[in-house]
Task: inverse folding
């Protein structure tokens, strides 16, 4: 490519609505242009990166035996009604009516359509397994689109769907996709981590997220450096910090703690470590019993320095549909205000659920259900009935790994892929069956597998940038090499050597752009550093007379002299490393 | 590709709603699957053809200096309001509201968005010319979607937009695109014709349509075999059939023609040729004059054997907003009923417009404005005042070419591309200006250029099929070559030779599929003839023992014996021819 035949439009400043570095750099590099809230035109440089990302995904999906098709954007409401998602999905599902008043969804994913395709095509177990995928535009009407391509409304996604005859087959298909995803993210040249994920409301039997590691990531990834344990924060099991409970050593004492509604304040006032305190979270569960609406009081107990994990709470039997208690409910149940709640002496009956760590504590501090008072020296069995015990908290660095093979570390990530064992959730709802070996109809076992194509761009930049701009990994860079001739228009020697190299690199299959715009060096270099092309060769008259070109990798602090005769091989070496 | 790793699902019968052969064959070959009215999933075989079509378009667009980007599907109403198209476009523009009630169009084309992109990026004439294109999903909410991919609602289009500083630049950009389109359709291997087109309501200064020639085409293409004149029926100028008017030879006579309301009936009754008759078409024009609504009576005169061309009528000065007269208006103006109207002796004043051919007729027959009577021997100047003269009719085969270089022929075509000189229609409405050499703002001169990507599939099939199925041109075939081994699973010799050929063809860059499904020959051959793969090689035990493979081109009536040693070179010869 020649820069004069391409469209390059860089900016010194990012627009004020660009809050994160990837959004700022993509706008400044001219990769994207905002059309509306969460809707972007992919400008020529941005589109080149997208196409490279798509090509790698496509190759690895094909290699893994998945078959590409293309499902429509505009999908009839009737299919979405079959699975109930037409009603279940909120306003993030973009809905549209045609001229005849018929309703359609603009697809955010395609489970319904692929299940409809397959139920029309698959008759027998002999046709299985099958895995279909497409790379398609998606729309999700986010309430608050932001962060450029990270949380846009219109975006590109690769979604694949596997169909198997039984659970073992589905798990095998899942494994193939898991491995394909690992291959894809490896080829992107990004540091990534696959973590076990919670299955969430969608149901199913297993799921993993693929995250690009970046300190700016929204998600916390939990892993054990000495084993292969890895999970996201929702799914990471927290072990009790003490293996067994110590015997009670102190007497229960009601202690004045005026104005201290937080564990940190109580610990400071009493001169104790925060890890000696226990905080109380009051919940209400409303349900129908024998046709009557009843309210239950529940209490969660967490160590003062721990954080509640709401996904785990929802899994406690009885708490699937809980909510936090209102101040009025708290007053009625505990006889006091928030900040002084505890398990000893509540006004109304409360079901107590202690986090595993709290269940093994002795001589702890908790609220006394009396304003400005806490108990010290509280002990299970003696002062309070034994509680229900559950894993309620987020893990923290240094916790024991649930596999018993080390301690946990935490890093930040950006979710860019998700593989999911769906089981028969969709096939049962849509009556997508096949005839098994005995000629009996059975529902298809499904898996679904997504990669956020356009999100990859943002995640790659969040992981790879400096104060000059983007630093693309070679495999997904808009160009692999940029040739920067000095006075291309004026000095024949420079022009001739640039053209020779350009031809030789193209012949070698290198994706190269020559900057023939005739800019001054400073402006030219700034453009390519901002755009993030990984390899740069400067062709200058003085250097040529000395028999040298100047090579500089995007992360290099200094240039390297390379002879014109050696430059193609030199660059091929850099590109393959 | 191996058939067992691909998805092949052919059908004996097409669904009853498939009215035309391309729709029937695409459904039977398993290329597309209907999701809703005018909305199709592109199944794996169909998608392969689409990707090949897109790749050829992309290569030629890039070669022509156009730059690829990707504009969003969901486009804010505000931009469409700037050009007035939000209101002008009817229900075929699919409109959607987001969760905040903001309105958007699902794009049918992208003039507004590209003009918005460019007005934000282009400051100076130095940045021009520019040509941006994208290949993107489009939606048009057709009232009556039909014919499969020919008139779908969701479809894929390549649309390009050129921006120039002046008319000459725009015309040069237009020429480059015209030539690129010719290269694209040539590479597809389709017989096509570019014809001059009417500019229609969109305005602008020039336009051509590209048609795939097919006897089933909806459009009539007019061309001169001995010159380069070519136009569609709307734009093809009709010359007068006689160069000059003959002198009057007969007396005007009012003749009883009871019950003959059509020219054919009158000619038969009077024993005259149909070409001696003239038919009258009564029009009404309503307009405001000095704040008052007035009605004008107009009459069009056409030779009895000619067809009215309504696009030409609308171009007659004064007739831009005409309509056909109602029966009541006819009775009031002519004093008689339709079937007996004519230019002699109307009850009210009528502006008479004669087609060029009618204006040069003598001794003709026309209605007498009296039920059951016609005039014979009617003559201009003597019996009727000289009329206004205009080109009002469709040309017919054998008409003189407007360039004077031969006579016209007509063939049928399917429109698959359109190039259009837009001028400043969009840039002026959207204030997309640049600073010219004198530092003065001037509106950008635009052109737009479309290719119906998915429609190409239908058109190619309408041009290339037989009673067995589709016959793809090599360049856009889903596979170039199919290997059909007989008893692949059972006979090692067959399996080994098939694998050797498969490897050799892949290494030679041939797009080959091996049918390893183990089907019987009849079913296997029928599948590939239906799918339309252009080259087939049968590998059988008996042939191999005799040192032969059987090659058969999709259009060949018999197979050709080729030795295993020669087959790769033989196929390469076929593919490059």
Result:
């Amino acid at each position: 490519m020649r820069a004069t035949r391409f469209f390059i439009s860089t900016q010194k400043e990012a627009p004020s609505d660009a809050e994160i570095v990837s959004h700022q750099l993509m706008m400044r590099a001219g990769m994207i242009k905002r059309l509306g809230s969460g809707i972007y035109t992919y400008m020529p440089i941005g589109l080149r990166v997208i196409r490279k990302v798509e090509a790698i995904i496509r190759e690895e999906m094909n290699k893994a035996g998945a078959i590409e098709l293309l499902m429509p954007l505009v999908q009839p409401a009737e299919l979405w009604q079959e699975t109930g998602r037409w009603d279940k999905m909120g306003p993030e599902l973009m809905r549209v009516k045609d001229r005849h008043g018929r309703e359609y969804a603009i697809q955010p994913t395609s489970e319904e359509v692929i299940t409809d395709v397959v139920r029309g095509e698959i008759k027998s177990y002999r046709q299985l397994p099958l895995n279909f995928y497409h790379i398609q535009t998606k729309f999700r009407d986010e309430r608050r689109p932001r962060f450029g391509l990270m949380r846009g409304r219109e975006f590109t996604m690769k979604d694949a769907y596997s169909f198997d005859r039984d659970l073992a087959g589905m798990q095998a298909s899942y494994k193939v996709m898991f491995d394909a995803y690992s291959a894809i993210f490896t080829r992107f040249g990004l540091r990534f981590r696959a973590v076990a994920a919670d299955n969430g409301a969608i149901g199913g039997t297993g799921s993993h997220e693929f995250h690009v590691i970046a300190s700016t990531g929204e998600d916390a990834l939990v892993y054990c450096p000495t084993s292969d344990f890895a999970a996201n924060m929702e799914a990471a099991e927290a072990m009790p910090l003490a293996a067994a409970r110590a015997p009670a050593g102190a007497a229960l004492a009601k202690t004045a703690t005026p104005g201290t509604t937080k564990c940190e304040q109580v610990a400071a006032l009493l001169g104790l470590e925060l890890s000696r305190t226990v905080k109380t979270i009051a919940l209400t569960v409303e349900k129908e019993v024998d046709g009557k609406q009843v309210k239950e009081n529940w209490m969660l107990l967490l160590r003062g320095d721990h954080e509640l994990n709401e996904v785990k709470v929802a899994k406690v039997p009885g708490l699937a549909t809980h909510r936090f208690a209102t101040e009025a409910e708290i007053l009625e149940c505990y006889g006091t205000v928030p900040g002084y709640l505890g398990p000893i002496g509540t006004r109304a009956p409360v079901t107590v659920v202690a986090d595993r760590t709290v269940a093994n504590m002795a001589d702890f501090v908790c609220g006394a259900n009396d304003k400005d008072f806490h108990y010290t020296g509280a002990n299970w069995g003696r002062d309070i009935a034994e509680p229900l015990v559950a894993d309620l908290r987020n893990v923290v660095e240094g916790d024991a790994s649930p596999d018993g093979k080390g301690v946990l570390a935490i890093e930040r990530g950006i979710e860019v892929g998700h593989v999911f064992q769906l089981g028969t959730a969709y096939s049962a709802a849509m009556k997508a069956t096949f005839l098994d070996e005995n000629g009996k109809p059975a529902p298809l076992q499904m898996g679904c597998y997504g990669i956020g194509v356009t999100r990859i761009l943002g995640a790659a930049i969040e992981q790879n940038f400096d104060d000059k701009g983007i630093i693309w990994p070679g495999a997904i860079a808009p160009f692999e090499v940029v040739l920067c001739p000095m006075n291309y228009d004026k000095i024949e020697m420079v022009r001739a050597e640039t053209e020779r190299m350009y031809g030789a690199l193209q012949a070698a299959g290198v994706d190269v752009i020559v900057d023939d715009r005739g800019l001054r060096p400073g402006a030219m270099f700034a453009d390519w550093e901002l755009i993030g092309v990984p390899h740069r060769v400067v062709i200058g008259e003085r250097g040529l007379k000395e028999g040298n070109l100047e090579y500089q990798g995007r992360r290099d602090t200094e240039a390297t002299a390379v002879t014109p005769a050696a430059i193609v091989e030199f660059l091929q070496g850099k590109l393959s490393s």
Remarks:
- The domain at 47-236+410-461 of chain B is CATH 3.30.930.10 (BirA Bifunctional Protein; domain 2).
- Chain B has a mean pLDDT of 95.
- The longest strand of chain B covers residues 409-423.
